[in-house]
Structures are given as C-alpha cells and as structure tokens.
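re the bet — no i am not wrong, look at it urself. input seq straight from the record:
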Amino acid sequence: MVRLPVCFEPRTTAASFRKLLDKNEYKYRRLTDSRTYTKVSFVIAHEKTAMVYRYIIEDSKIKADIWEENPISGNITYIELKGEDKNKINVILKEFALSLPRKPWEYTVFQKLRNGWFSQGIFRAKSKWEDYVR
C-alpha cells in the first residue's frame, strides 16, 4: 500500500488520474465510496467521513483511492494505491506525478499558510514522493 499527499483538490486529482488511465488504455471501474479519518480538536478526536474517488484497475487488480481530509485547518488530498504488483504501482505513480501541471508535493504558499507549514500532508510530502518519481 502506498499513501501519498497531493497538492491538488480531490476532484482535479481524480480527473488527472482518470486521464492517465485512459491514455494508457487501462481497463478500470470507477466507484464512489467513503472512508473515515480522525480530526483532532483541542484534545478530543472526532470521526469524520470523506468521499472517495475509487478506481479499480482490472488487469493488475490495483485499487486507487483519492480523497480529501480536513485535519486542523485547510484540506489535504491523498492518493492511495493498493495491490500486489509493486512495480506497476510505481510506474502508475510516476506517470501520474509527471502528468500533473506541477509536482504533487509543490504546495502553494497559500496552501502552506492555510494548512500550516508542518501539517501532516505538507511536511515531508516531497520525500514521500521521491521514491516514485525517480
């Protein structure tokens, strides 16, 4: 399983991922689902639900989820790929990163100010992506 932050909104990220799948002629199914995550306010943890854009690539049985979390302030989009073929996942992530208008870890100054320079998605985003874009 690979879970990486992306500096774009989930709808834009999902559209870019779908274009990549279409371009490479992958057979896939698109679903909409939900997932829960925890948001901490003061010292109390709150369960939240996020809408998930899910793509199931049928050839390699890879499942890709794209969703947005609202941690303390701002929004962080994530992409998560699960499957047994690690090489295929690495290729898909590299092609995905190269297909975006800017690198997926290059948050704008406004995003960094809104979410916090050291928030969970922004802090070390580049180092998390480096293994997949080499």
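see?? Residues 1 and 82 are 4 Å apart (CA to CA). told u. also The chain has one domain: 2-133. so pay up
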